[in-house]
Amino acid sequence: MATTKLTLISTLKFLIFMTLFTKPIAQSPNYVGDDCQNSTEQSLTTTYKSNLKKVLSLLSSDAIVSKGYNHTSIGANTVDGVYGLYDCRGDVTGSFCQFCVSTAASDILQHCPNRPSAVIWYNFCILRYSNHNFFAKLTTTPSWHILGSKNINNPQEVEKGEDNMQSLIKEATMESGKLYAMGEFNLSDEKRYGLVQCSRDLSENECNQCLEAMLDKVPKCCGTKIGWQVLAPSCLIKYDDFIFYQLISQTSSPLHDSAKQGGSSSKSNTLIITIVVVLVVALALMSLCIYFLWRRYHSNKDGLMSKTITISHHVDIHRENSLHGDLPIVPLNWIRQSTNNFSELCKLGEGGFGPVYKV
User: Which domain holds residue 281?
Assistant: First the structure.
C-alpha cells in the first residue's frame, strides 16, 4: 500500500517535471562523410590507441564549454603522439556542439578503425585526428561535394550564387575575422541562403585560400543544382534555397538541418511540441485523479475517518475500539442502561442467538 502511494507520487512528480521542462528536442547531427586519410588498417600500438581515446574524450568534454572550436594533443613529438581538433558550425555552441562532437568521436573509430589519421564531417561539426601535427596547416584535400535534388531553372542563378558566396567569403576573412559567415540573398522573388566557414586554427589569408579553392569547384561539380555543399578538412561552403542555419543574433539553438523548407520545419516542430505538452498535462491530471480516488477509498476502508454508533443519547462507541475491525465491543452496563436492565418492555422477540432488545 505504501509502495503504491510512493509510486503514484513519483509518477506525478515526473509528469510535472516533463510538463515544466519540455522543450524542442535538437535533431541528432547528420553524418555527411569521412576520410581515413588514404591509409589502410594498421597495427596501432597500445599507447597510441590509449592516447587517441584520451584525445577524443578531451575534445568531447571541452565542446560543451568552448565557443565551438578547440584542439589538443597527447604525447606530442613522440611516435605515439595524437593530435585532435573539432570545429562546430559558427551558429552551433554549447550542448549542441558537444552532442555533435561526442557523436563524431564515437563514430570516427567505427568508420576508420585502426587508422593513424582520419576526418569525419557532420552538418553541425567536423572532427579530425592524426599522428602528425596538422594544427594551423591549410588542408584542401580530400574534398567532398553534396548536391540537392532541385535543378536550376534561372540561368542567372549560377553567376549570382557565386557572387553572393564571394561576398560571404570576404565577410568571413576580411570584415569580421571570425572565419565564418552566413546570410540570405534575393534572387528575383526567391530567397537563397549561404554559409562559409574555415577551421579556426587557420589565418585569415589561409581561410580565404581554402574557401576560394572550394568555390572554384562549384561550376564543375554543382553548377546545375540549387542546393550544394563543398567541404574539405580545413573549410566548407554551403548554398541552398532553405534556411539551414540559425542567426547568431537570435537564440543559439540550431535549426533542424534536414528540413526541406524552413517554414514547414518550424510548423512541424511547433505541432509536435504542442501535442507532447497536451499529453503530459492530461497524464498529470489523470494521475492526480487516480491518486485522490485511491486515497479516499483507502481512507474509508481503513477507518481513517472516525465513525460513531449511537447507543443512547449519551453513549458513543467508536470503531477504533472494535473486535476484528467489524463488531464493536459494548460494555455490559451500557447494555443494561439501554434495555432498562433487560426489561420485557424492551424485548422485541427471540432469535437464533437469544432475546433481541430494542435500544
Answer: 2-21+271-301
